[in-house]
Amino acid sequence: MAYKKRGNVETIVLQIVSDMTNRELAESVTLDSRLKDDLNLDSLTMMEIIVAIEGALKIRIDERMSGVETVRAMVAHIENDGKSEPDTEYNIEDYPLTKAKKHLRWLKLFMWLSRLAWRFKVAGQDNLPAGGRYILCPNHQSHLDGLWIWAAIDRKHTELERVCCLAKQEHVGNRISRFGLSILGGIPVDRSGNTLPAMKRGLTCLQDGYTMLIHPEGTRTRDGNMQEFKGGAAKLAIDADVPIVPVRIEGAWDIFPAHKKFPKVFRFGRRYPIKISFGKPIAPDGKSVEELTALVQSAVEQLGECDEHRY
Description:
By secondary structure, this protein is an alpha/beta fold. Helix content is 38%, strand content 13%. β3, α7 (175-184) and β4 form a beta-alpha-beta unit.
């Protein structure tokens, strides 16, 4: 077939990778460019690249290509048909798992316990779009950020049956962790490199009306300071045509920093404060990934001190 001609595949792949690479790096893309180390491509950008290549070459690419390291390896994968069996024992299409009544009861209980154990100060709930279909982008201070953010959102502002987030693939094989996946709407991510299926699934969920929580920093802060935002959330928002709601969480680092195994609960009989602010939604509106990411990070940084609201 025509797409099997080496020059054609190389030319198309190089062009697509260049088009989807940061402007400052696009002109330096070669076959030996390392996708992550040299071009700073994240998982969602890899998803976009693969979808674009599939459309240009009229082929179906095995999703494990998301783990290749160079442009040359990408070309070789296509030319060799790169077929391989998935190394996971679950179907990504099953996630997020359906929430039964017991899951919703537990989620509501955890949210209530959070409001009881810590003192919440919340602002900007009215900024949350009605009807779901948006991405919450908070800074990342602790393991419990997601739960605390759902606890801060009045149940009138979100449909708990249709919330989701990304979670470690390792949770699938553990009975207790799997229950947690059901409660929070977790989509398992293969952190060894094959993250594309989870990203595609997240895109489908947003298109189907889910509210999704993504930490654009990618990992928890190690020193309490906000890290640079990555472009994955912005790319998902652009592809799904949904707004991003910037969220700032303060106090979580003091309560549950990365080096601690358990969160602090009481201090001299008083509850530790958690401050959560929801900013105005930011629509993609033709913005580039870089522009949208910068706007979201700026908005999160500017949210700062929130108006006090006690539960």
